[in-house]
């Protein structure tokens, strides 16, 4: 097994990025609370660095009140701790797997948000009945396979599922909860918030009767416009 | 195509109203968060001016924390930007269409609020089973047609639907979400909050069994009293 | 029609109680927001005085941010305004009717809280499946008749229903929403919060399958202990 | 009946622990509000001492705004008041019973949280369809028997049920609500928050269709890893 370098052996620009990303990742955890995506210590956020093959991730089982930039853990992309006083999230190996296999992804978020997780407990994709889903997910929100926690098996399931749904930034792991990806941690947090919102709305719609699904051609138009025109360019 | 005037070429009273309306529209976005009507950057509010054929609207895809009076965009009633540093909301052409075709409307709000949008995903009007609906909507809350985002097609669908439901300040666009109108932006925000509340209540009622709908004659009495007697005159 | 006295013609002790009750009633409206019982301007609270046949009630259609002790309206028990700059709540005549016909009641609250109102839209009593309901309501939460707004007809329906359910501090008016009573306004606000909580819980239980109703003998024991032993005596 | 000692007759180290635990228990009640587990005065928390056979518990029927460390009541493990100005919680005898019969338990929490209580109104265990349930509960969340309030009967029902479900820190008493246990009050509050979250998620899943239950072998693996690896060791 290769020797893991300590953070102090990395160049100054890496150390500077670590400092900035620790701040970003610690602060973004407040958004998980703000949008009601987590209870107690559940949920975790990571961001990959651009200056080295490292990532910054939440420590394991620590309450949100105690999260500080300094408590965020730095690991390499095999999940080995490079800097930090606490053990990293139980999902570290899965975050690392996603970064190794999806080179455009620089942010990963995992929650057990209520309605997304409810869909996951039944193994059903969330059908695409909202223009907001066409925009954000380019179709249904897919369900990934059942996997035990602690190894990189969940990461494998996430990557395998997202390959089949290339427009979706979210996969809901069966019996578990959503994982979301993005170009940075903020984008992945946004995807986590949107996943719960569409999960809740489509859940409520299903209780009312027959959902009208959107035509795949219209979904493609929505997704294209949203990806290329929406927001500030 | 006519030349679009810049804001500095408008009379002083127009510039003064723009300044005041930017403040109003920016501040009202807090109410969308307060009443849980929006997630992340979703939702937008506009208000038409009284001193010129202009409106003030939220910029596209900007997070609520970043909204300031200065970031609000001023456009004419064809959606052309007259003042502002950012691109206006994706729904600008639809807001503009509504103002051009409904001369008493000076405020428009759009959200994806959860339960209203759930009714929209099934294409069903919300039946009138609450005195509060008789008061505010004068009957059921209507569903509008499915339309793609980005052109004025949504505005057309809103206007066409509200013509058939002249007492309703709200229409829920199929597979999309509610648009509400009012004599100013605050009235349209109130209508958005009431739309979500009655959508949630009637959704919950439907899960309990048979809803008792209110007699149309009683609805007319409720709506008349509310419009003419309620509040501070 | 008898001449209505102005507040300044009442004895000093009445004016002192009015001042204190205005503070109480204004402040209690914050609890309606805290427990998610109201949206926008919906909902109202009143408290009857002990020193004169007067009551203090919320003004009509005013936003919660604007409510101050001074804005609370004083009326006699026929709903005539005795002091105040604004028109009193649309439900004033019904509050007054309740006070005239239930001499032990000194607080009345009305809301459109979501789940209680949903039961009201279907005309079904909330069945007693919680020890908390045995404690607080001594049985099911009853539904009252459908009545139009603006006269004392709603008050009549409330009183008539509560006579049949003497242990309940709450009645849910059909297609409208809950009215609650108490020995003061705070007790009625508590009853409003408990009504929504049991409405929500029993609504959720009904979606799971068969509710186990509590035996009436056990309900009587719960209600007796709660009324006579619970709390600080 | 034996004479109950007053707190001032206990050694200094007991008095010091009482002071510290009163602070802990008073402060933890804020978490019940934060995670929406209680309405008005419902819910109570206790913690057992390590230096004497005493416990600290919430006073009966007091609003959360009024809870201070000083208002917390100290009782012995038969529920006799040893120190405090107010009457202890109605559930004191049941908390005491749990401590006497489960020697590793030093924290007990009781709430009427909405979705957990809804399961309790139907008498159904919450099925294990979430890895989070495997982690925290080692299987389904069990329902305990119906018992009246005020004696130690509820405590008996809790202990009897948890003996059959040795990995679960929670039991939902039929028609009543959840009781949770832990190595201290904070752990029991965490279990209360997790109980409501899994109750809500599994309730929502049941509305979507068939729940996929997790294989008991996988549940055992999840529970073992969570108990022995998760968090900071």
From TrEMBL, chains A, B, C, D:
Keyword Protein biosynthesis: no
Cofactors, names only: Zn(2+)
Record domain Class II aldolase/adducin N-terminal: where: 23-203
GO cellular component, one term: cytosol
GO biological process: one example: pentose catabolic process
Assigned keywords, A-Z: Metal-binding, Zinc
Catalytic activity line of the entry: L-ribulose 5-phosphate = D-xylulose 5-phosphate
Family that this chain belongs to: Belongs to the aldolase class II family. AraD/FucA subfamily.
Protein's UniProt name: L-ribulose-5-phosphate 4-epimerase
MF (Gene Ontology): aldehyde-lyase activity; L-ribulose-phosphate 4-epimerase activity; metal ion binding
Pfam families, per database record: Aldolase_II
Organism the protein comes from: Aeriscardovia aeriphila
EC number: 5.1.3.4
Annotated InterPro entries: Aldolase_class_II_sugar_metab, Aldolase_II/adducin_N, Aldolase_II/adducin_N_sf
